[in-house]
Amino acid sequence: MRLNLFFRKAYPTAFSIERLFDQLSEAFVQRGVSVHRLELPEYNNTLGNVRSNNRWARTQVQGCSRKEPCIHHVTGDVNSIVFALRGPSVITIHDCNPLLRYPRWHPRYWFYRWMIFEGPARRAAAVTVISEKTRRELVELTSVKEEKLHVIPNFVDPAFVPRDRPFNTARPTILQIGVKPNKNLARLAEALAGVPCRLEIIGQPSDDDLAALEAHNIEFNWATGLSDAEVRQRYTECDLLAFVSTYEGFGLPILEAQVTGRPVVTSNLSPHREVAGPGGAALVDPFEPAAIREGILQVIRHPEYRNQLIERGRENVVDYHIDSVANRYLDLYSSLL
Q1: Which of 14, 48, 93, 131 is deepest in the core (most CB within 10 A)?
Q2: Could you give the 3-state DSSP secondary structure of residue 71?
Q3: Among positive and negative, which fits the CA dihedral 15, 21, 22, 24?
Q4: Would you say 154 and 130 are in contact if contact means Cβ atoms under 8 Å apart?
């Protein structure tokens, strides 16, 4: 089998899709698949660039034959190129945020709906989504047929391994992953006001978030441009993960903390609670700073509860191994040939 994996043009600050499928590529190759990595020449953010990318994609899929059947897989964000591909194609939709961000009267709503979501989903042979939540949203927001949708979750990078560390109850280091508006940093800052702790932030906070951190006298540090190894080190050095975002397509940091052996405080929303697993995280209302504060204090003050979260988290991550996820994709590809 030949697998053409299509990627968006690389962004300097967004690389989660690339990291996910580059690692899956290695697993596919180990299973005898011929993988071709194809990165689009243009950002897919205007109609002119969409046309340019489609013309380019059409030139990349020559040479497929009965002797070497091909599957084309668009890995995310650039699903419109599926219109240029001949043969079985798969698209992956990570979340439906653009359809929720814009009102229906806005031109960008219709651009995203027909060029990224509904149109490509109708054209593709199969659509994979990374969570049950994304599947439900896609059904609610579009007319895509449910039988086309396949839930295949993300996996935890195998480089994440358990790292024991005594919990610093006097002044814990709390890890925050991400700084986009949905990551809810301002409410977390309010929740931590007066709590002896240090907040370690991956990403550069906005001016508004910096103002909130300073207004609540939070001791914090932020870093950007970290290598994968440096990100893993941040997990090792923290005492707990606060992942109280208001919207996610999946929520991979929850699993990364669980593998490392750190307790998690996360949002009582979907997909957070499903990803965390039963008893795998302290679930809080992300819209209420008082609830976030209480969840964090429960972890800090109660060692038995904290250790229970860590143990349940370790049990939960077994279901998110790369081999299991790779096999599910390969089963889907084979069913389309």
Answers
A1: 93
A2: strand
A3: positive
A4: yes
Tokens 């194809």 correspond to what residue? Answer: 38
What sign has the CA pseudo-torsion 288, 222, 98, 22?
negative
What backbone torsions phi and psi does residue 178 show, to the nearest 5 degrees? 95, 155
The pLDDT value given to residue 63? 62
Q: Which of the residues in the chain have pLDDT under 50?
A: none
- Taking only the tens place, the pLDDT of each residue in 132-179 is 999 999 999 999 999 999 999 999 999 999 999 999 999 999 999 999
- The DSSP letter of residue 114 is I
Q: What per-residue confidence (pLDDT) applies to 61?
A: 80
Q: Give the pair of three-digit tokens for residue 102.
A: 């814009």
The alpha carbon torsion through 284, 286, 287, 291 (nearest 10 deg) reads 30
3-state secondary structure of 40: coil
The span from the CA of 77 to the CA of 188, in Å, is 29
The domains located in the chain, with CATH, are 2-155+321-336 (3.40.50.2000), 173-319 (3.40.50.2000)
Q: Are 61 and 83 in contact (CB under 8 A)?
A: no
Residue in this structure with the two tokens 């709906």, named with its chain if needed: 113
